[in-house]
Amino acid sequence: MSDVTLSAQKIVAPHRAEFVRDASETSQVPLVVEKPLPLIGRLYNQTWLRKIIILAFLALAWEIYGRYLNNNLLFPTFSETMSAFFTNIGNGVLPARAWSSIKVLLMGYAAGVTLAAVLTALAITTRIGTDFLETLTSMFNPLPAIALLPLALIWFGLGNGSLVFVLVHSVTWAIALNTHSGFLSVSRTLKMVGRNYGLGGFRYISKILIPAAFPSILTGLKIGWAFAWRTLIAAELVFGVSSGSGGLGWFIFENKNSLDIPTVFAGLLTVIIIGLVVENVIFRAIEANTIDRWGMQS
């Protein structure tokens, strides 16, 4: 064996004291053990349970205040309202009125979403479309939908046509504005990717813009739904006076005239329940299967 080989075997790498750890010391390092949350902590992390607790607290405050006033013509208690609610559920009046309102709402909402989609598609593909959408939004978005009700009565008469007209107005501008803002906020990199793949027109919008801007689109759909629902109830109050028929709005107005205030509150409670179901079940399911699944929202 050569002298060079012997010298290489004798070479020992230098040790730095700050990086040298005794084996006995490392064996005594405490292990990190994940401690399970207590039952209260696990329950607190459930969103649905927190919301139920909030609703229960509001119902309790409602009951206490109603008993304090002791005047069901002014403010019925929660128990009196629930009694009227289940009575009208049992006799089929509330389900029929609620379904009548929901059918009209679906027609107006679908028409408004379609019109908003067409306007936004034109705005994102052409400059004149952008100017057209911005001008119409500035003109009609501040205009309350219920203010168009007299014109709707003249143009479409008594019936669902007038209701659908005011619903389309209340839905279109909120959805179009949010969708267009979402399209404009899409990164230029994604837009360039779409162009490099030769996408254009509808394929470019459906493959690139809609997925990237879906959080804004979903926000617009939520706002449009809320506008449409409250506009429909307000419009039905007027249509109920005019034609003697209608959905939940007419149900509320009819019982107000007969001074059945617990039943009026039952109608209002039905409006609230439908709103909660749509927001926390339908829209939440859409959000969970799109935005949350795609990792677009923390």
From TrEMBL:
The chain crosses the membrane at residues 48-65, 104-124, 136-158, 233-253, 265-286. It is a multi-pass membrane protein. This is Aliphatic sulfonates transport permease protein SsuC. The keyword Cell membrane applies. It is found in: Cell membrane. GO terms for cellular component: plasma membrane. One of its GO terms (biological process) is transmembrane transport. Signal peptide: none annotated. The lineage of its organism: Bacteria, Pseudomonadati, Pseudomonadota, Alphaproteobacteria, Hyphomicrobiales. InterPro entries: MetI-like, MetI-like_sf. It comes from Afipia felis. Residues 98-282 form the ABC transmembrane type-1 domain. It comes from the Bacteria. SUPFAM superfamilies: MetI-like (SSF161098). Gene3D superfamilies: MetI-like. Belongs to the binding-protein-dependent transport system permease family. Its main location: membrane.
